Amino acid sequence: MPAIVSSITRIVLPVLLALICGGVVLALLGKDPFAYYWYVIHRGLFSWTGFQATVVRMAPLLFLAAGLIVAFRAGLWNLGVDGQFLLAAAIVAALAPELNGLIPRPLNFILCFGIAALVGASWSLIPAYLKANYGINEIITSLMMTFLGINLANVLIKIPFNDPNTTVPQTATLPVEDRLARIADTVIHEGVILGLVMVLLVHFMMTRTAFGLQLQTVGANPRTAVHAGLNVKLLTYATFCLSAALAGMAGAVEVLGVWGNVRADWNPAYGLLVIPLVFLARFNGFGTIAFVWFFAVLMIGGESAARRLGVPTYFVLVLVSLLLLFLAIVEYLDHRWRKGRV
Amino acid sequence: MSYEDHKSTVARGANAIELLDISKSFASVLANRNITLGLRSGEIHALLGENGAGKSTLISILAGLQQPDSGSIRVGGRETRIDSPRHSLDLGIGIVFQHVVLAPTLSVIENLMLGRSWRERFERSSALNRFHELVETVNFNLDPEAPVSSLSLGQRQQVEIMRALWRGHEKVLVLDEPTSMLTPQGVVELGEVMRHLRDRGVALLFVTHKLKEAYQLCDRVTVLRQGEVAGEVEVKDRDVDSEERVVNSVVRMMFDQSAIGQLTGQRFAQAEHDNASTNQDRKTDKTNVRLRASGLVTVAEPGECPLRSVSFEMIEGEIFGVAGIDGNGQKHLAEAISGQRKLQRGELYLGAESISQMSGKSRRQRGIRYLTDDRMGEGILAEYAIATNLVLKGIGEPPFWSRGITFWKKIYAHARDLIQRHDVRTPTEKTPIGRLSGGNIQKALFARELTNDAAIVVYNKPTYGLDIQNIELARGRIKAGAERGVSTLLISTELDELLGLSDRIGVMYRGEMVGILDNKPGIEETLGRLMTGLEIKPQVTEASPQAG
User: Fold this and answer.
1) Residue B541, Cβ neighbours under 10 Å: how many?
2) B356 CA to chain A: closest CA distance, Å?
3) Residue B288 in 3-state DSSP?
């Protein structure tokens, strides 16, 4: 029981501290922190449209989180998720309207998700190859691949995939009725459920399968993995491909579920936002879902509050970074406290 | 001397550092109970005890890593609370830890320069001066610019000793199991260094579980048992009588009355040689070759000694000892056989089947096992449960996995069974293995490797860092395995161990097997000459190139 209490405290306390500290910053900016937070909660959670928007926003974040859990658990820093995401999104956005009407809708979705996964995975092959064969730091290579991916996506959208019928450079648009189906009378699409399933599957894979334990072994101590006879090279490729495939599918779900197209220069950079959340949850699937939800509330509510109160949208990021900071501090103090007590 | 007398003597002073009535417990385990210990300047003090006797805890307290629950510490007569490692250093306490804690990517000199205040300038030239000065006092042969990753474990330990002495004002030097990685020659050299420091007035604490070394190197021996001081003996004249007397009384302090029968002092002489004859009996009726290695060659990695053509055969149930000074290719040999390292050239046969190109996993399935010497570095996942570690080499295999799905209940049950059978002391099977003592981790690794279908087991320094009881236990297991027909490759730097267990002994020198001897009384000298490269047996013709 005390263990549960302490682990709850370890999460709730930093959240509270981050909110208080963020409030002080708002007050210093001359904004009313209570109004801001109220808008965030109200718009992100308690209003029906806001709530739906929050849930919809969760879809790509969940896919990305699933991909990051795989990579981080295996000790590989796939920071290239944004490139994998955007490239897959651009290609799916070009493909889906083309195929639409030619093949049945479900088949179109399956095909698009599959291609998105392949595109994402292929964009991770170079970092995987360099890591597996030469031990080159994947943080750097995957991040560089992100820049290449983002720019390549832009080139694709502006030249070959450009829809001539619009003035802004963007891909052709998938009609609203041909996008992922809505659930009941809401604007929430099926992709959210798919995202939840993905996170849970990944969680199951990591905790209940041989493959998951192999990945964890590599992540915890690569030398032990070699000693235990694991094929670390192959596992490195598998991890990267799986992680990047999920990132690619995140791009697909955003295009097929929400936008229907991709505009040039569109880059939500969700990946970098999700990374801290996955860490906060300590790679636990359920924890990740909770944090993604919390963050989606902040994002949606924050956008709305930003418009009302004139606080920049980016303030949400300030809150998240404060949260990370306080989490680290609380963790450190907890560690000190335990050490002192034992 | 009674314990009360001992306490009053300690309290009377003349000590560089005194621990008075120190107690420390972890969760429900009492690691130290009312320990009183005085370290005198100019004296080498041995702290002797089994694994789990509380030695490590005591060192942590001296290092400022742990705080005692009760009791007090006096440094130079003044009561002090050592509240951080830095404070410990400031007080003049230098500590050489058992597990080397150097930055492998930095050079020797850079490692030595670490740990100074950020305000000080990073001056290489003055550091080099200090280095040469210190190297002269301790008589080490080290290259200050060599990256630590390229050094052998023994050399790394020398760097650790230098680091502990780096500041130059050390009044107390604590050495935690310093000989576990050293060759016999290295131990002698370490002894010289210790005596030298003693003569300069340093108080040395030599923490060990090797009675013989404690006797040979130290002036005073304190025995810890189950967290308490079991007694203290002063070593005066080193003659045969006194050795017998000291050894007997220490053994009595270390173990309960019941254990004394098996562990008399004579085991520290060469009584184990008697075993050799029984070993000979064991193998007579079995002559089929189990493993044949011919011309094994591996590629050197920086700082490692590769194999430069190693050939030998092992028959069923044989214990084939591999002697050699640490860092002469033993590790590559073990890894080449287990499949962890690729062969550049050469052939390995298991019976009639060539296994040269086979993966480690397939070799394991064919009964080849490898008990690594690098327990912490590659043997275990320290933060994972014992149960997980016990199945680490068979991930995905039945009965614990089926179609890739893990059956944790079976894994835990399996772990409970092995923990009981191998007497691993742990709270539960879910305890992170890194929290166990070295001896218990090794027991767990024995449990992992020595399953029923083991046919060939490679042991790399299997008793390194273990206490007497666990050493006996490990040796017993190795022997029992061989009696069941396991062909055993026993790599060790402890000659006593090899002479006591092996049927034949091969000697590694600079990556070559320079000689293979039948284990008979009187081979020590030849072994020693082979190990140091003074002699090369005629059957090996290839000249040994310069070691890298």
Assistant:
1) 8
2) 15
3) coil
Summarised one tens digit per residue, pLDDT across range A103-134 is 998 999 999 999 999 999 999 999 999 999 99
Are residues A213 and B406 in contact, defined by beta-carbon separation less than 8 angstroms?
A: yes
Quote the pTM value: 0.70
Min CA distance, B506 vs chain A (Å)?
Answer: 25
The Cβ-side half-sphere exposure at B167, using a 13 Å CA radius, reads: 19
Question: Pairing mode, if any, of strands B203-208 and B43-48?
Answer: parallel
Backbone angles phi, psi at A193, to 5 degrees: -65, -40
Rounded distance, CA A281 to CA A69, Å? 10
Quickly count: other Cβ atoms within 10 Å of residue B201's Cβ: 12
Type of residue found at B101: V
Closest CA to B277 of B517, B499, B60, B22: B499
Q: Which pLDDT tens digit goes with each residue over B369-407?
A: 999 988 888 999 999 999 999 999 989 888 899 999 999
Closest chain B residue to the Cα of A223, Cα to Cα: B378
Q: Which runs of E-coded beta strand occur in B41-171? A: 43-48, 70-75, 78-80, 93-96
Helix/strand/coil for B323: strand
Q: Determine what percent of chain B falls in helix, strand and coil, rounding each to the nearest 5.
A: 40, 25, 40
CA B200 to chain centre: 29
d(CA A229, CA B362): 9
Long-range contacts of B234-240 (CB under 8 A, 24+ apart): none
Q: What is the 3-state secondary structure (H, E, C) of A49-65?
A: HHHHHHHHHHHHHHHHH
- Tell me: cis bond preceding B538? Omega within 30 of 0 counts: no
Cα Rg of chain A (Å, integer): 21
The shortest C-alpha distance from B292 to chain A (Å) reads 22
Could you read off the pLDDT of B432-485 as tens digits, one per residue?
Answer: 998 888 888 989 999 999 887 889 999 998 987 777 778 888 899 899 989 988
- Work out the number of other CB atoms within 10 angstroms of the CB of residue A258: 17
Cα–Cα distance, B504 to B517 (Å, whole number): 6
Chain B residue with CA closest to A217: the answer is: B381
Residue of B nearest to A211 (CA): B404
CA nearest neighbour of B81 among B207, B227, B173, B90? B90
* Residue A210 at interface with chain B, using a CB cutoff of 8 Å: yes
Which of B66, B366, B381, B412 should we substitute to test contact with A (largest number of A Cβ atoms within 10 Å)? B381
Which residues in chain A have Cβ-Cβ distances shorter than 8 Å to B370? 227
Interchain proximity A224–B404, CB inside 8 Å: no
